[in-house]
Input
Amino acid sequence: MKPHLRITVQTLLGRQTSQREIERMTGVDRKTIRRIGRESGAYAS
Output
């Protein structure tokens, strides 16, 4: 994944944007979005 897309996903997750909405805006799969969120600490679990 390109660095700018990863940063965009992290920013949107930080703004409490839903995974589905992020998927629509960026074209990144929801599973990938969930993984990025876990790696960046956006999710508690």
